[in-house]
């Protein structure tokens, strides 16, 4: 009887495409960084959530972790934890206005599906 072999995905040994940001997203990150001199940039990560599986988490960064990857555009700095890369690799981050709302939006080629409200995605 043949046993199923489980493939192990090791984040440290993978070649990443990276995460990009539009000019609008970069401008917004720079504005946030300039409001507080302690802020080094933003961190993009994911957490299990919602009906589709995962949601994006954005936090201001005062200190970085050893496994954070840094993506820069001009002065804008976006940090992504290595463990989040399988979920966000290839993502483009934008900053948009929809009516009275302004928000970061993500164009993630790895997202296979999203929930109806747009709050979560699955890979």
From TrEMBL:
The keyword Chloroplast is annotated on this UniProt entry: no
Assigned keywords, A-Z: Iron
Pfam families attached to this UniProt entry: Fe-S_biosyn
GO cellular component: cytosol
GO molecular function, one term: 2 iron, 2 sulfur cluster binding
GO term, biological process aspect, one: iron-sulfur cluster assembly
Protein name (database record): Fe-S cluster assembly scaffold SufA
Organism: Candidatus Hamiltonella defensa
């Amino acid at each position: 009887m043949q046993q199923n072999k489980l493939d192990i995905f090791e984040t440290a040994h993978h070649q990443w495409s990276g995460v990009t940001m539009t000019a609008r997203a970069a401008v917004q990150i720079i504005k946030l960084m300039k409001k507080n001199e302690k802020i080094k940039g933003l961190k993009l990560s994911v957490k299990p959530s919602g009906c589709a599986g995962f949601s994006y988490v954005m936090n201001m960064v005062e200190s970085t972790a050893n496994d954070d990857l840094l993506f820069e555009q001009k002065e804008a700095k976006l940090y992504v934890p290595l463990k989040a890369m399988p979920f966000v690799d290839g993502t483009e981050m934008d900053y948009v206005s929809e009516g009275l709302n302004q928000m970061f939006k993500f164009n993630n080629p790895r997202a296979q599906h999203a929930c109806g409200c747009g709050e979560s995605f699955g890979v």
